[in-house]
Amino acid sequence: MMLLAIVFTALMQVAGGAIRLTQNAAGHSEAAMWARSLLDSAYVGEPISPGSSAGQFNAKYRWRLDVTPWNQAGAAPPGALLQLYRLDLDVLWGPPAHPRSAHFSTLRLGGPLRPGAASAAQGAP
What we know:
By secondary structure, the protein is of the alpha+beta class. The chain has one domain (2-117). The chain contains one helix and four strands; from the N terminus they run H-E-E-E-E. It has one helix at 2-41, and strands at residues 51-56, 61-70, 83-93, 100-110. The protein is elongated, with a radius of gyration of 22 Å.
């Protein structure tokens, strides 16, 4: 009887761990869905501009987006018609004291960087 109690306790701990892992994976999957939605639609109908913005997808998930000019070879040549921008998105969920997070990053092609735009006011996607 004692052996059965020990085995049953161990099995319950394994099952509890599997449930926690499943919930964690589901949270990350939903965060990825929200991130893809925001990154796919960011700056589609408006010009891209460097800066930061933040908001909430729903009551559970919140986000912060940082947009910076990006050029692997260094500064873009003067008079360039197009500029690459790096979009860094952090999706957070869970309690504010100990949030879970996922980071997503992509490049977006936009118009040239205007002088002083790197320190311009923050814009929302």
